[in-house]
Specification:
Helix content is 35%, strand content 22%. The chain is built from 6 helices and 9 strands. The strands form 2 sheets. Strands 1, 2, 5, 6, 7, 8 and 9 form a 7-stranded mixed sheet that branches. Strands 3-4 form a two-stranded antiparallel ribbon.
């Protein structure tokens, strides 16, 4: 019995290590349950009800003023539970359930992008989509290395242009930062010309 328990414990440790080793593995779970924060948006799309549709900001108290519902506490609740709650609440006013609820996070897109600033992003967006909101990367930017920064610290996550934001630990207040490419990469023409000139000079000297 003791041996069986020990084997089960070892197996659980291996599974946990594998999950943690996957890019965004545990963090993806965190992203899916991270509650709304002040500054985030709730986007409502209700079929044939333009007066009930729109984007509504979460205030500093975690409250959003929603049409027909009025001030509604939305902060601190898991996204899935909040979405289900809002759909159920609006279903009381409607003859149908064609209700779309999207929760948007407020993040900063900084670094080598054309229009750095604060943007609201949907979970279905990719990193590339978020960078496009900021006008895309500049010619000096390195789109192959994108950092996720929180509280001034770079988080150890691997991001690519195709990474879906919902699969990351990104949350309101975070930064997507695009660093500049290295000097040599940004100036390949100068480097090539310098090398070519140096080689030509050496050949000329050796030919004398």
């Amino acid at each position: 019995m003791t041996a069986a328990i020990a084997r089960a414990a070892r197996l659980a440790a291996v599974v946990l290590a594998l999950v943690c080793a996957l890019p965004g593995g545990v963090q993806a779970q965190q992203a899916s349950v991270d509650p709304l924060r002040p500054g985030d948006l709730i986007r409502l799309k209700i079929w044939r009800e333009p007066d009930l549709s729109g984007e509504f900001r979460v205030d500093d108290e975690g409250v959003a003023v929603l049409p027909r519902l009025g001030p509604t506490q939305v902060g601190g609740q898991e996204p899935a539970a909040l979405t289900a709650r809002l759909v159920a609440a609006y279903a009381d006013f409607l003859q149908h359930r064609s209700i779309e609820v999207v929760l948007l996070r407020r993040i900063q897109v900084l670094g080598a992008v054309r229009n750095p600033g604060i943007y609201s992003v949907e979970p279905s967006m990719t990193v590339s989509d978020a960078l496009a909101l900021a006008g895309g990367t500049t010619s000096e930017g390195n789109p192959k290395r994108i950092d996720l920064i929180r509280g001034g610290r770079r988080l150890p996550v691997a991001l690519s242009a195709e990474t879906r934001l919902a699969a990351t630990s990104i949350r309101s207040g975070d930064q997507l930062f695009v660093p500049e490419r290295g000097w040599i990469t940004r100036n390949t023409g100068i480097v090539t010309a310098a090398i070519t000139g140096t080689v030509g000079l050496l050949i000329a000297l050796l030919s004398r």
